[in-house]
Write a structure and sequence with these properties.
The structure is a homodimer of 341-residue chains. Chain A is α+β, with helices and mostly antiparallel strands and 341 residues long. The first copy, chain A, contains eleven helices and ten strands. In chain A, helix 7 packs antiparallel against helix 8. The structure holds a DNA duplex (30 and 30 nucleotides).
Chain lengths: 341, 341
DNA sequence: ATTAGCACTCTATCAAAGCGAGTGCTAACA
DNA sequence: TGTTAGCACTCGCTTTGATAGAGTGCTAAT
């Protein structure tokens, strides 16, 4: 059996209607709602076919139909209106110099308020970026501060405890040594051989060099378990199908233990090569606890190849068109903020 | 009418029973539960009195009684067993050098898992601490990095954009200028007059000084909206009286917008002078959205006078004794971690 | 002062009944 | 052959009424 034009139209009508109301859709509703001018009986026959094909299903006999995951999938792939007016969403323009996390939190929040869904945003990860600057300074008689700056102005600090005091001149020398050898290198290029060479040159101060390198390594490591911000988790209470205790609890947990969203971020980044915006319907999601939701994600890229992801989490009957539109809109704005520098 | 011994015992029995079951408690239950050897009829009379006095209330006629906020208050103030065995709770010992936020998250989580309530912990705030060190370094042709270190090794970075390049010597001079005048001062002592004087001394570079002072100011400001970590928000779903959509949503929101908990932190810090552990029952809480919960908080103090707070949020019928015990236990452990350095 | 006893109240639970929405099928129709 | 009117049927939701049970307040006896 094939999906002819008419079946598609009916499926579309069912889904549209269900997205709006959240209630199973009956044949009579379709018969009036569409411009097909077909009686409910005809619709019924077609709907029986659609059910057999797996695009819609009945919660129980003598109820209307609701879309299945397969139905939603067809809808977002083929049937969805690609362009639609989207409410203009103003991201408050933040100075680029402002702390990145402020901006991200802000974006997540604006998005949550605008869409009425839960949102997440992962901070751009800086893999492959170059070391820009290292500075050691004494802050106390037996402590020095190591500041590591990576391209993109990511700054990491570490306090190092000294065994024996260092005089100012030595610190200066170490600074020069470190900067001349390391700046401009990517974090990957700083390998053991290079470290050994540096230590050798540092002579009796090789321990300090080792400690600094550990600080650099930690800067990398910390960046690896990436930061994720969320907002609007309470929006899920707006959708009865998600707000029963069991499911709500699961979703809230995931939002609290943000690291559980990592797989979502990874998957989005991988797939973002092929397609800008990614839609996960129900069980398609890489995060188990969201199998009753749909998740729409996009990868964004700031200058200098820093990539992060934005995600919107809602019920399966989310307004995909609006969400996709809003997300595209947001991308543009992020772009413009970071281009106009 | 006064609360004699017997009334107190009955009130205690009602509350104990209600804490366990969460169901209204009837006179017959009390009659058997206690060692008073009184008939249910007598209990009924006494309970009628207790209700008139406002310590207990009936959800509806012909239901048992439940404690009122006033009843709980009396209970925690007077009736509660002060000492009780508490499950030993191991806080994973983290190296002191480890990042503070790791430790805090860990503590919040352990506490949530152990108590089955929602928890929050605020990072210690460093008000009144002294400026230790300021360092300007050039990271780019027109950017300098300002690092501000406050006592307690709190470090803040800011990138400043220059209008005109600065030579190394000038940067060095500025460093000396700033450090000689500012280090050792508390953040409050750095007032406008002092800034003006510095600017004057900096001559043509007064703009830089101004920018650095802004950076310092921002370091303060950022520290002010203090960091709060939460865990176990989903635990509230374990208590039916809190997991209805409306209330749950409100609580979850508060946990997401952690800044809403600030007033709780403030209040705890203020009151911590008089009493170690603070209990807010229902409407007593400074955070409006938790009026249906009880909140138990404590202020902790790490070395160097850094104070933060820990809070446990649960239903009014929370196990106060256990929670208080657990909290005291935790305090001891935190102490020992930070004492043994 | 305490308590046994009783009438009363209120809720929760269950079954029966009716309603309404929706279906599938059949037969008639164009 | 595709469409549609009609009809019997199913199922869930809501209402209703009856019942049981828990608990109370009051009174009268101890």
């Amino acid at each position: 059996m094939q999906l002819d034009e008419r079946k598609l139209k009916i499926l579309q009508a069912v889904i549209r209607n269900y997205l709006e109301t959240g209630e199973p859709v009956g044949s009579r509703t379709i018969s009036k709602y569409t411009d097909l001018n077909l009686s409910s009986a005809t619709i019924r026959n077609e709907m029986a076919d659609l059910e057999e094909l797996g695009y819609i299903l009945q919660p129980h006999t003598s109820a209307g139909r609701i879309p299945s995951d397969k139905g939603y999938r067809l809808y977002v792939d083929e049937l969805m209106q690609k362009e639609r007016e989207v409410d203009e969403m103003k991201v408050m323009l933040l100075e680029k110099e402002e702390k990145m996390d402020q901006l991200l939190k802000q974006v997540a929040k604006v998005l949550a308020v605008n869409t009425n869904y839960a949102t997440m945003i992962s901070a751009p990860s800086y893999q492959g970026n170059k070391l820009k600057f290292i500075q050691l300074s004494r802050v106390d008689v037996n402590q020095i501060l190591a500041v590591v700056v990576v391209e993109g102005n990511i700054i990491k600090n570490n306090i190092l405890n000294l065994e024996a005091p260092l005089d100012d001149e030595t610190i200066l020398k170490l600074n020069i040594l470190l900067n001349t050898h390391l700046s401009g290198l990517t974090l990957e290029e700083i390998n053991l051989g290079m470290i050994a060479k540096l230590k050798q040159q540092a002579g009796i101060h090789s321990k300090i060099v080792g400690d600094v390198m550990d600080a650099v390594a930690e800067a990398i490591r910390e960046e690896e378990d990436l930061q994720i911000y969320t907002s609007g988790a309470n929006n899920i209470f707006k959708y009865p199908e998600l707000s029963n205790g069991e499911k709500a609890s699961e979703i809230i947990s995931t939002f609290e233990e943000k690291q559980l969203l990592t797989s979502l971020v990874q998957d989005t980044l991988e797939k973002s090569q092929e397609k800008g915006i990614q839609i996960y319907i129900g069980a398609e999601t890489p995060v188990q606890s969201m199998k009753d939701c749909s998740v729409v994600t996009a990868a964004y890229e700031l200058e200098e190849g820093m990539k992060g992801t934005i995600g919107i989490i809602g019920p399966k009957r989310m307004d995909y068109e609006k969400v996709v539109g809003t997300l595209q809109n947001l991308m543009k704005q992020l772009d413009s903020i970071y281009k106009k520098t």
